[in-house]
């Protein structure tokens, strides 16, 4: 997901993450994983995600660094 620049730092990303997390937990999932851009990494860290691995995605032609991150939904 990406937030339109006009809505950055207004809580939109956190709202979407919260909705996704609650829906996943309600469906019985116990863990979330995502691929973060370097710009999005701080948001996901602040929401409790931790780094699993760093890779480069070169499928679009130019390599883009991304971070695989995960979060447990169980306490």
Q: Tell me about the biggest sheet?
A: 3 strands, antiparallel
The mean pLDDT is 92
**Uncertain residue ranges:** none
List the domain count as a whole number.
1
Write down the CATH class. Alpha Beta
Explain how this protein is built.
- The chain is of the alpha+beta class.
- It has a single domain, classed as Aminopeptidase, CATH 3.40.630.30.
- 28% of the residues lie in helices and 32% in strands.
- It starts with 11 loop residues before the first helix and ends with a strand.
Task: State the main characteristics.
single chain, 75 residues, alpha+beta, three-stranded antiparallel beta sheet, 2 helices
Summarize the structure.
The protein has helices at residues 12-26, 41-46; strands spanning 31-37, 50-57, 64-72. The chain is an alpha+beta fold.
Task: Summarize the helices and strands and which ones pair or pack.
Layout: H1 12-26, E1 31-37, H2 41-46, E2 50-57, E3 64-72
Antiparallel strand pairs: 1-3, 2-3
């Amino acid at each position: 997901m990406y937030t339109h620049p006009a809505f950055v730092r207004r809580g939109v990303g956190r709202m979407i993450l919260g909705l996704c997390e609650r829906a996943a937990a309600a469906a019985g999932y116990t863990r979330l994983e995502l691929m973060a851009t370097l710009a999005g990494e701080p948001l996901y860290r602040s929401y409790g995600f931790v780094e699993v691995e760093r890779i480069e995605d070169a499928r679009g032609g130019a390599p883009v660094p991304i971070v695989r991150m995960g979060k447990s939904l169980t306490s």
